[in-house]
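About this split. The held-out portion is used to measure sequence recovery: a designer receives only the structure tokens and must propose an amino acid at every position. Recovery is the fraction of positions where the proposal matches the reference. Here is one held-out target exactly as it appears in the evaluation file.
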């Protein structure tokens, strides 16, 4: 391929090769999301909050009973788009993705875990008017205190890494970090900040929603007490609503499992005060 044409200009194909982009992407015109598809995503997300044990057959049946022509194939796609993880052990559960190391689950002895010792992270789907985003949160396991969170419109690992680094910088390194086996949490960019600090890595069994149940309960509370109650109009609105609810959850919402204390009070009671002033 000639680097320069006779008229002195650089061929378009050469420009794309130098920039590392495909030529076809230059002609791509974005289209607004399909309103029907967004509606189905929200319905599937609401189903997940109530029936996390449903599989594709039941999701498809449930939607068809509501008048939506959804087969198992579309149900499977929609479930993946809202980060659905059905509660049951799956075949080949220990098989890792190529290039991604899978670590064992380390949190079977829950009674001895103190605030600051274990963090967990997870991603959930956030429906909005005319679109959607994904929310990641990093939580202290023992106190349920949300250490950090980020919102993004893609499932790339960057926003997960950003949330993790904020939690580590503000509150210090834990002994163990627990996540699911999603690509965002098994990639080198996410694991390296933990491994460099000597943090042990724990991962849920494949499809084992119950292994990370505390943060799954956080998602249920957030959606039923906030997200589903008002129509989020965009990213800024979503950030404002989520920030307000998480502040209420951390500092003013008493938790029955914490003897009536808030997550922030339980975190401080464990001798962990670093970062609390800035978060309050």
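Reference sequence for scoring:
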């Amino acid at each position: 391929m000639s680097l320069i044409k006779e008229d002195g200009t650089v061929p378009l194909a050469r420009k794309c090769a130098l920039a590392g982009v495909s030529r076809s992407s230059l002609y791509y015109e974005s289209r607004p999301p399909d309103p029907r598809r967004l509606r189905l995503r929200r319905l599937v997300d609401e189903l997940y909050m109530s029936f996390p044990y449903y599989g594709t057959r039941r999701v498809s049946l449930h939607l068809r009973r509501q008048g939506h022509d959804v087969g198992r194939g579309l149900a499977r796609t929609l479930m993946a788009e809202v980060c659905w993880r059905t509660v049951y052990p799956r075949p080949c559960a220990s098989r890792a993705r190529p290039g991604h190391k899978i670590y064992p689950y380390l949190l079977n002895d829950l009674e001895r875990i103190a605030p600051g010792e274990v963090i967990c992270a997870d991603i959930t789907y956030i429906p909005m008017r005319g679109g959607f985003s994904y929310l990641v949160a990093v939580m202290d396991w023992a106190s349920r205190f949300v250490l950090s969170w980020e919102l993004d419109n893609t499932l790339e690992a960057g926003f997960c890494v950003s949330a993790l680094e904020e939690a580590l910088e503000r509150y210090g390194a834990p002994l163990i970090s627990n996540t699911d086996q999603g690509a965002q949490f098994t990639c080198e960019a996410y694991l390296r900040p933990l491994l460099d600090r000597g943090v042990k890595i724990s991962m849920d069994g494949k499809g084992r929603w119950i292994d990370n149940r505390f943060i799954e309960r956080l998602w249920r509370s957030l959606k039923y007490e906030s997200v589903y109650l008002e129509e989020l109009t965009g990213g800024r609105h979503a950030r404002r609503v989520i920030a307000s609810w998480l502040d209420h959850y951390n500092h003013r919402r008493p938790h029955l499992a914490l003897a009536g204390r808030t997550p922030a009070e339980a975190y401080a009671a464990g001798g962990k005060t670093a970062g609390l002033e800035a978060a309050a």
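Annotator remark: The chain has two domains: 35-81, 118-279.
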